[in-house]
Amino acid sequence: MKKNTRNLYFERMNTVLLHIQSHLDKNLSLDELAALTCFSPTHFHRIFKGMLGETVADHIRRIRLERAALRLAGGRQSVTGAAFDAGYETVESFSRAFKKMFGCPPSKYPERHWDAMYDRFPGLIHYRPDAARATFSLENRKETTMEVRIENVDAMRVAFIRKTGPYNQCEDAWKRLCAWAGPRGQLGGDAKFLGVGHDDPQVTPPDKIRYDACVTVGADAEGEGEVGIQTVGGGRYAVTTHKGPYGNLEGTYAELMGGWLPQSGERLGDNLCFELYRNDPQSTPPEELLTDIYISLE
């Protein structure tokens, strides 16, 4: 493991965590936080989730609630003031979220709850009143045992149809792509079926998510109508195999990019990340589906 590269990921996450806790009263946008790490918003979100164990939005929401709990426990703020400071528009919505998190309404929150909070949410980074001077350590994060291999991937020429919308609604794009490729002899035994997901579904609104259904084609294939031609691959990639439903892929992405990547000593590259589907979802039970996830490396 390249220690210096691993420390780079920790330092970038620490910078973000300190910024969040020092600016809880401001609108913390994903683009702003990602810029602090020099990652794209999509990559940043997956790395953050993998390293911290929760999404960026969930982390900010929880930290604001923890700050409110500390202020309430010390008798330094009213419930109404705590609700507005935590970003809630009504006391009612704040009270519901508070009770769900701490097990009691904010008006009944005693001092002892604060001391027990660390046991209630083990392994997470918590709110600190002295955020500007706090040192966050991610070294105690459990190291991943994910099996990952490094491959040099040749550039692949693919025909594709882009689908805009939720990832679980891409079947029609695949049907149209195969209907185009079949009569043109592009679905032979060597054809590979790839997916390029351009967006993180926990960040991008469902109706804005971009997905390219792709099949490898020969040099003579030309795009037509909605079918385009592009190049996927070409360079070093980290590869892991996801077994199970496509709906669970996001968790594997988070572990790969937020667990394996920081401890590997590798850095993200600029090529497209993609998925290689190794069996047919029409004839394979969901729990037996195999998907190779490729993320670009420098």
UniProtKB/TrEMBL annotation:
<dbReference type="InterPro" id="IPR050908">
    <property type="entry name" value="SmbC-like"/>
</dbReference>
<dbReference type="Pfam" id="PF12833">
    <property type="entry name" value="HTH_18"/>
</dbReference>
<keyword id="KW-0238">DNA-binding</keyword>
<dbReference type="InterPro" id="IPR010499">
    <property type="entry name" value="AraC_E-bd"/>
</dbReference>
<feature type="domain" description="HTH araC/xylS-type">
    <location>
        <begin position="14"/>
        <end position="112"/>
    </location>
</feature>
<dbReference type="Pfam" id="PF06445">
    <property type="entry name" value="GyrI-like"/>
</dbReference>
<dbReference type="InterPro" id="IPR011256">
    <property type="entry name" value="Reg_factor_effector_dom_sf"/>
</dbReference>
<dbReference type="InterPro" id="IPR009057">
    <property type="entry name" value="Homeodomain-like_sf"/>
</dbReference>
<dbReference type="InterPro" id="IPR018060">
    <property type="entry name" value="HTH_AraC"/>
</dbReference>
<keyword id="KW-0804">Transcription</keyword>
<protein>
    <submittedName>
        <fullName>GyrI-like domain-containing protein</fullName>
    </submittedName>
</protein>
<keyword id="KW-0805">Transcription regulation</keyword>
<dbReference type="InterPro" id="IPR029442">
    <property type="entry name" value="GyrI-like"/>
</dbReference>
<dbReference type="InterPro" id="IPR018062">
    <property type="entry name" value="HTH_AraC-typ_CS"/>
</dbReference>
